Amino acid sequence: MRKKVIAGNWKMNKVRSEAVQFLEDTKGQVPSFNEVESVICAPFPYLSELVQKAEGTPVKIAAQNMHFEENGAFTGEVSPVMLKDIGVTYVVLGHSERREYFAETDETVNKKVHAAFQHGLVPIVCVGETLEQRESNQTNQLVEGQVKKALEGLSEEQVKQTIIAYEPIWAIGTGKTATSEQANEVCTHIRNVVKDVVSADAAEAVRIQYGGSVKPANVEELLAQSDIDGALVGGASLEADSFLKLVEAGK
Ligand code: PEP
């Protein structure tokens, strides 16, 4: 039985006081880590403080991106060493917004996944198709390519620990959720790809989230699907009440 992972992706939202207040507002109400993994993916400036504030609670703190190098002349970048140093435990890699606006590629995502494992960070690897690709029946092929490249060169053990987030781009921030059947169909395909390229054990263990306009009203139906092991949530993770409902559904 795979434990569900609910991750709130705040993107470029909240000022410091709001970020801290969120943890205050959810304190004591998030289910235990044994029941469900609850993750907040916060902007870089707040990570250190949020890690400290979340200590002793079930909430884990994630970065929304990182560089693959440990250090060097990469102005404006943040390294895995720095994230590890401040106690961050998860990192979102290859989000479609990074692929679209910041030239993230399958190759850089793969380098970042390796760097995450090298430094003890759990990668949440995002994959997903555009509306055009879905309408021209390229979804499975496209997602398969993204998954294979992202996992290239990892050990079976590392694949088991990876979290894959299937996020159809047309459903992100649009209010258009994939139906639970559509979402599950692609998640099942991803699991089969992992089985083919890694092993049946890895496919059984790897957790696959769905992301794209998930909210309290639709989360239960999505999480009830056979191959959906959690959710990566943008808009509906910004309010404490809403986030609490999402993690509750993951129990
Ligand atoms: C996301 O940020 O990855 C996302 C899925 O956003 P939203 O839930 O707002 O669609």
UniProtKB/TrEMBL annotation:
Pathway: Carbohydrate biosynthesis; gluconeogenesis; Carbohydrate degradation; glycolysis; D-glyceraldehyde 3-phosphate from glycerone phosphate: step 1/1. One of its GO terms (cellular component) is cytosol. Its main location: cytoplasm. Keywords: Cytoplasm, Gluconeogenesis, Glycolysis, Isomerase, Phosphoprotein. The active site is at H95, E167. PROSITE patterns: TIM_1, TIM_2. It holds the Pfam family TIM. PANTHER family: TRIOSEPHOSPHATE ISOMERASE. This is Triosephosphate isomerase.
